[in-house]
Amino acid sequence: MPFPFARTAAAIVAAALMPAVAAAQAAAQAAAQAAAPAAAGQCDIDDSKPKQLGMATFTLQRVAGAKSAADRQKGVREMTKALGEMKTAENPAGQAFLYGQAAMMWMQDPEAPDVVTRGDFGLPGEKGASLDLVVFADSVFDQVEAQKPNCKTLVTQWRGQQGWFRNIQTAFTAIGQQEYAKAEAAARRSLILNTRSAYAPYVIGAVSQQRMNESQGAEKAALADSAVKYLGLAVGEAGNDTSFADIRRRSLLDIGRIRIDQFETGAVTDFKGACGTIAPRVAQAFEAYLAENATQPDALAARNNLASLHLQCGDTAKAEAVYDPVVKNPTAYGDIEATQGGVTMTRINRNAKAAALFEAALQVNPFQRDALNNLAATYYNTQRFAEMMPIVGRLVAVDPNNPDNWLWYAYAYQGLSKPLKNADPKKKAYSDSLVYFNNMSETMAVRVSFTNFTRGAEETRLAGTVEYRAPQSAAPARPAPRGKAGAKAAAPAAPAAPPKDVTIALEWLDKSGNVLETTPVAVGAVKPGETKEFTTSVKKAGVTAYRYAKIN
After folding, report:
1. Mean per-residue pLDDT for 411-415?
2. Is residue 90 part of a domain?
3. Cα–Cα distances in Å, from 512 out to 355, 357, 366, 506, 542?
4. Are the beta carbons of 327 and 298 closer than 8 angstroms?
5. Residue finishing a domain among 136, 163, 190
6. pTM surpassing 0.85?
7. CA dihedral in degrees (307, 309, 314, 320; nearest 10)?
């Protein structure tokens, strides 16, 4: 069976992460510019000797506050002119550090090119020779870190300036536009300046993952390995840094997705082998994600994938253990997670745990249709027929035009009737009720079914179908005419019932049952035997459930 994990589109990921990337870059920029005087006691570069270095340091402060790219570049050339006039041996670390800062200041303006000529930048030597400022800044910063190891923190802050950020920004924008080669090139270029960021390896891993989804065979396997490698690097670089928290979470999740894809691919030809070799990697990936993100929205799919994996490979004990945290504290995970856990417990015949989880889901969200339906089924499976009644009553109040919901009443009365003796008056009453609700289910003219219910923070969507089950009208009784030979002529066909115009009076509910919005869903004319789809949505915070008025 396919795993219930919707793969996140790269464009959506890029759009979601860009604000965090921008915030991280702004923080790094502010830290670097504020750290120079504060770090003097830690970073022992003398920025005043010789005098040319002192002049360049003074100019740097003016360059940082420049109002335009032209003024900034003019100031940078003043810096590099002064640095070029000093003898390197007098203060090699100081000269290299100021050269690096000058390069980063040049690239501070997004429109300023990062590949110029030596003459443009003001370096000695052949004026027309090309100069890659990203490579140049990295090389001089390397010199500083080698000569003054205690300056590495300050140098790292300078490496995270605009010259680095512009490439990261290009990479994420390119992912959003599905320009994957451009995204990877920009990410790798950013690594020249700054290898201590989680963004670049994440982009490279995401690009490999996208290419993996479009490949087959050995190429797909190689791209999967590349994606896992770089996403793992992103996890490592993110560490416990809160500015990289979203990157770390997404990377862990994507590693799990890739491993699931590898399992599905391998299981086609060698199911047993996939369970033995790939399944443990899948489990490790999702367990790592869940250990840090147990109640995140994506944890629902991750936990479901993990349990499904164990079930497919025949390990029901591990599948059950996946939901142990939810069983112990279901309210912490919410009604959707508790309901999904209950479904999994039902699949492995853990009915007591299933009932507890469905009951917990309804404690959180009393109008949750799936929890109500599944709890009714669980009570039936465990012969708790009397307890079915109030649950079915709540279910049909929420979803009155689903014939299957009314059939639960028939099942409950059947269960209550079965142990009674024929002489018991309750037996006839229960049997009459069984017949009544069974007939109601069979003759219900309009069936409403729901295919999707997606709850969002700002918008909630609902989709489903309406089926008109009305039979054809009976033809009026009359004597059958006879032909010339005395044979009976064919009776006229019964006229079809007219179409029924259907509008669903839908109410959107919060977890307490309050009506947040009422939406009439005009399905339109539905012919007998026809099924029509419908979709609707509401832009309202706090929606957790829905109900509608019975359609006669």
Report:
1. 97
2. yes
3. 21, 19, 7, 17, 10
4. no
5. 163
6. no
7. -10
